[in-house]
Design brief:
Layout: E1 12-13, E2 17-23, E3 37-43, E4 50-51, E5 54-56, E6 61-70, H1 73-77, E7 102-109, E8 119-122, E9 129-133, H2 137-140, E10 143-144, H3 151-156, H4 159-171, E11 180-183, H5 189-202, E12 206-211, H6 214-222, E13 228-231, H7 237-244, E14 249-254, H8 259-266, E15 268-276, H9 280-285, H10 294-302, E16 306-309, H11 319-331, E17 339-344, H12 351-358, E18 364-369
Parallel strand pairs: 11-12, 11-14, 12-13, 14-15, 15-16, 17-18
Antiparallel strand pairs: 1-5, 2-3, 4-5, 6-7, 6-9, 6-18, 7-8, 8-10
Helix pairs in contact: 4-5, 4-11, 8-10
Length: about 375
C-alpha cells in the first residue's frame, strides 16, 4: 500500500484512534435501543503513517474532535431492518458507525483554510475524533461555522430548517390565501420553523400547532406565533381539533402520522394539501396503528386533496438559496432558532435518540459533549 503524501507543515498527532458508536444489532422498538449500539475503538485512518511520537496528518486533511451532535428522527429510520429500496436514505448495516451530523473543533490541520480552533459541521457520525479529507468535502458535507456563532443555533437552522422551508413553500405551496394550516410536532425542530414561517413570513390567517404537553403548547403560541395550540394527549383532542379548524384545513404539515393525520384528513379543505415528511408515531410504535380510516381516505377523493411525501435531499441543488433566505429571516426577526441542548458524555450519546423520540424537548435537540 502506498503511503499518503505529507504536507510540509504536517504535524505529529497524539490521536491515533477514536471511539465510535456502531450499530451492533437492529432494534425492535425505538425506546429499546440499549443493545442496538456498541462502543468500540478504531484507528483514525488505517493508512496513516505512524511514528513512536504519534501520527502524521496527511496533506489536505484536518483532525476534528466532535463536540455537538444533531439528533434527528431520520436516524431512527436508518436502523430499521427493512428493505433498502423502501427507505429514503441508505440503510445502516450492522457494524457501521451510526450516522449523524455533528460539529467538531479542528485540533490539527494540514490545510491552509482550516486552522486549529475552527468549528466545522459535517456528516461525521458518532465518532469522537474524525480525520477528514478536505478533497472530499462534498462527501463530508463540510461547512465552516462563522465566528461568534452559537453551534446549537447553527444546528437548529441546519437541515431541519431546510426541510421546513422546502416542505412548506415548495411541496405545500403555501400562500397567504390559505386560511388554515395545522402543524404536527409544532414545538420540535421542523415544526417550530414551519409554524414561524407560516405565520410570520407567509401570513396564513390561522396557524394551529399540535404538541404533546401544555408546556410545549405555550412555546408554540408564545415563541412560534401559533394562533392555537392543541395538546394531542388531551381527552378532548378530537373535539378541540374540530373547533380549531372551523374553515377546515388547507395545509397539514405532517411529521408524526397517527391521530393528527386522521383528523386532518377528515377536516381537509377542498384542494387541501398534506405535506408528509415524517412518521414519528410509527418509529415509536411499530406502525400497525397508523392506518387511516375509510372516511378520512375518501375525503382525499371528494375534496380533491393532494398528499405528497418528500425528503429534503430532493432539493439539495437549492440548499444555498434556502440557507440564505432562512438566515435573512432570522436577521429580520421573523423566525428564531429553538433548541434544547442536552449535555452528556460521549459514552451516553445513544440516549439522545431515546430523548428525541420521547418528544419531551423543545425545538432542535442537540447533544453537547462534556469534555474534561
Amino acid at each position: 500500500m502506498t503511503e499518503p503524501s505529507l504536507h510540509p507543515s504536517a504535524q505529529k498527532s497524539r490521536h491515533t484512534v477514536s471511539r465510535q458508536w456502531i450499530l451492533h444489532q437492529y432494534p425492535q422498538r425505538s425506546h429499546s435501543i440499549s443493545g442496538a449500539f456498541k462502543l468500540i475503538e478504531r484507528p483514525l485512518h488505517p493508512s496513516t503513517p505512524s511514528t513512536p511520537q504519534g501520527t502524521c496528518i496527511p496533506a489536505n486533511k484536518i483532525l476534528l474532535r466532535t463536540l455537538w451532535f444533531s439528533n434527528d428522527p431520520a436516524q431512527r429510520t436508518r436502523i430499521n431492518n427493512a428493505s433498502p429500496d423502501r427507505l429514503c436514505t441508505d440503510l445502516m448495516r450492522e457494524g457501521d458507525v451510526m450516522s449523524a451530523t455533528a460539529i467538531g473543533e479542528v485540533i490539527e490541520s494540514s490545510h491552509p483554510e482550516y486552522r486549529k480552533g475552527d468549528l466545522v459541521r459535517g456528516a461525521f457520525g458518532w465518532s469522537e475524533y474524525v480525520l477528514v479529507d478536505t478533497d472530499s468535502s462534498r462527501d463530508w458535507q463540510l461547512v465552516k461555522i462563522p465566528p461568534k456563532t452559537n453551534p446549537a443555533d447553527f444546528m437548529a437552522m441546519g437541515g431541519t430548517a431546510l426541510t421546513a422551508y422546502f416542505g412548506l413553500l415548495s411541496v405545500g405551496a403555501a400562500t397567504s390565501a390559505d386560511k388554515t394550516i395545522v402543524v404536527s410536532a409544532a414545538a420540535a425542530a421542523i415544526g417550530s420553523i414551519v409554524t414561524q414561517i407560516a405565520k410570520n413570513v407567509v401570513g396564513i390567517k390561522r396557524v394551529v400547532g399540535i404538541a404533546g404537553s401544555e408546556a410545549q403548547c405555550e412555546v408554540i403560541k408564545e415563541r412560534c406565533g401559533a394562533d392555537i395550540a392543541l395538546n394531542y394527549k388531551s381527552p378532548n383532542f378530537r373535539r378541540e381539533f374540530e373547533e380549531a379548524t372551523p374553515e377546515y384545513v388547507d395545509i397539514y404539515f405532517d411529521v408524526t402520522g397517527g391521530e393528527a393525520l386522521e383528523l386532518s384528513l377528515r377536516r381537509i379543505a377542498r384542494n387541501g394539501r398534506v405535506v408528509a415528511c415524517g412518521a414519528i408515531f410509527r418509529y415509536d410504535s411499530g406502525g400497525e396503528e397508523m392506518a387511516v380510516s375509510a372516511k378520512a381516505w375518501t375525503n382525499i377523493i371528494f375534496m380533491k386533496a393532494r398528499v405528497e411525501g418528500f425528503t429534503v435531499s430532493e432539493f439539495k441543488d437549492r440548499f444555498p438559496e434556502a440557507r440564505e433566505q432562512v438566515f435573512r429571516w432570522v436577521r429580520q426577526g421573523k423566525i428564531h432558532p429553538l433548541k434544547t441542548v442536552w449535555r452528556a458524555k460521549f459514552e451516553e450519546l445513544p440516549q439522545g435518540m431515546v430523548k428525541l423520540l420521547k418528544g419531551e424537548h423543545v425545538g432542535k435537540l442537540v447533544t453537547e459533549i462534556i469534555t474534561e
